[in-house]
Write a structure and sequence with these properties.
The structure is a homodimer. Chain A is of the alpha+beta class. In chain A, 53% of the residues lie in helices and 10% in strands. Chain A has a single domain, classed as Glutaredoxin (3-Layer(aba) Sandwich). Chain A has a 4-stranded mixed beta sheet with strand order 2-1-3-4, with helices on both faces. Chain A starts with a strand and ends in a 6-residue tail after the last helix. The interface between A and B is medium-sized, with 31 and 31 residues.
Chain lengths: 200, 200
């Protein structure tokens, strides 16, 4: 039996990525798919594609808060809008890559998104990142130091360039092979695809 | 027992509105809600809000076709991308209002969206609108004549202004009282709301 792999391009600055991250592991398990978490920089993707965040349209931004709150209730997960929004996610993403090299990539990814979107913490700050690293059993100082490692920086850059090359314009974005799915609101289509229900 | 009313702001130029229109009656029935179809002009809403259609971002436009095809398969409904996209929907919307006055508003709305998105017909053309009107038992010539009636024009203008005033920035948009839901992909949240599952 062939096993699908879901590539999950995530950026902790994106609230819909947080929401999707609370659901994707259960969906992958239900569909027997493997999950690969790929940190990337949504801001660079916006620059490259000309796409804009929803808050750039006032009426859309106004609705966004209500929409996010509904999703959180629908999923039964906590959510608050951080004072530090939109957060600079370069350091948290580099830290996630360092955490991955230390064998705790997924735990760190979930913890950093939860710190930001459930607890409202400013994850651009080194002290917060150290505490998050420690909470998943990592050496916080070592993780912060690793964010300055050129090899770590390069992985984040490469993930972002790979995303742009493959047509990504927002977050979260999922790939199953060449099939791209954009948005927390496409998880039901992703699930249907993995179950073979969208075949021509 | 209080019965919810869903106001459904629709524009046949919008593919996601067509998709939602294939589902909304069943959802309303399931939730015991009444449904009120409100034609409005999405183009005017884009002008007023600064929002832009997805195709205005090339990477987004490229993905749009695949995304729409997936939704159509997911729902089990036909879909083709009309050669006349983006269609000028002023005449079809006025015709829908005239059809409503003749007691066939919903039948016409569904027929005009299906003609455009399932059959690829150019619904800006009077001959097409006449045929669509006839297909739901209306006098096509009378409907076309009514599109020039100032009272009909005024209703479309008023619906559009009402939408903008209430925060609409895209289509489809649904209201349940003051609660706004935007997008075909929010039907599951609309259903959850109607069933009281999103209460604080």
């Amino acid at each position: 039996m062939s096993v699908h792999t879901i590539e999950f391009f995530w950026d902790p600055a994106s609230p819909f990525t947080y929401l999707a991250a609370t659901q994707i592991e259960a969906l992958a398990a239900e569909c027997g798919a493997e999950l690969r978490w790929k940190p990337f920089l949504l801001g660079k993707v916006f620059e490259a594609t000309g796409n804009r965040p929803p808050v750039s349209v006032p009426a859309k931004g106004k609705h966004l808060f209500q929409d996010l709150a509904r999703w959180a209730k629908f999923y039964g997960v906590p959510l608050q809008f951080p004072k530090s929004f939109p957060v600079n996610s370069v350091q948290p993403e580099r830290a996630a890559i360092a955490a991955d090299k230390a064998g705790k990539g997924v735990a760190f990814a979930k913890a950093v998104m939860s710190a930001h979107w459930a607890d409202g913490r400013d994850i651009s700050q080194a002290d917060e990142l150290k505490a998050i690293a420690a909470s998943v059993g990592l050496d916080g100082e070592a993780i912060i130091a690793a964010t300055q490692d050129p090899a770590i920086k390069e992985i984040l850059k490469a993930n972002t360039e790979d995303a742009i090359k493959r047509g990504v314009f927002g977050a979260p974005t999922f790939f199953v092979g060449a099939e791209m799915f954009w948005g927390n609101d496409r998880l039901q289509l992703l699930g249907a695809h993995l179950k073979g229900k969208l075949a021509a």
